Amino acid sequence: MAEEAINVEEQAKKDWILGCLHNADEKVEVTFRKKDGSERTMLCTLAESNIPADKAPKEGGTTKFSDAAQRVFDLEKGEWRSFRWDSVIQVNVDAAS
User: Fold this and answer.
1) With the C-alpha atoms ordered 65, 67, 69, 71, is the resulting torsion angle positive or negative?
2) Confidence of residue 73 (pLDDT cuts 50, 70, 90)
């Protein structure tokens, strides 16, 4: 029963982060641990209005990504990047000004 409660809590956190990533009015900074052990902070989004047209996901795309990782658009690098959900250390959300 305790494991199920943890899974529900983790899913709720994941859903909240995804909601923030899809909101064009919020800046989302995700800090995570990379495979090499170093930490990285990424300013990222999933809001289509914040992604340049030439980088936007294609309609009807069939690329499947792992549920363990989240693909996001890195606003500073201007490219698609990903992080593993189990490597997230911190998430900061600020309203865009």
Assistant:
1) positive
2) very high
Q: Can you read off the two tokens belonging to residue 93?
A: 């959300």
- Between CA 10 and CA 86 the distance in angstroms is 10
Amino acid identity, position 86 = D
Residues 6 or more apart whose CB falls under 8 angstroms from that of 87 comprise 32, 33, 34
**pTM of the predicted protein model:** 0.84
Question: Cα–Cα distances in Å, from 33 out to 26, 39, 59, 82?
Answer: 23, 4, 31, 12
B/e letters for 28-47, b = 16+ CB within 10 Å, e = fewer, are bebebeeeeeeeeebebbbb
Residue corresponding to tokens 């990533």? 21
How many whole angstroms separate alpha carbon 53 and alpha carbon 18? 21
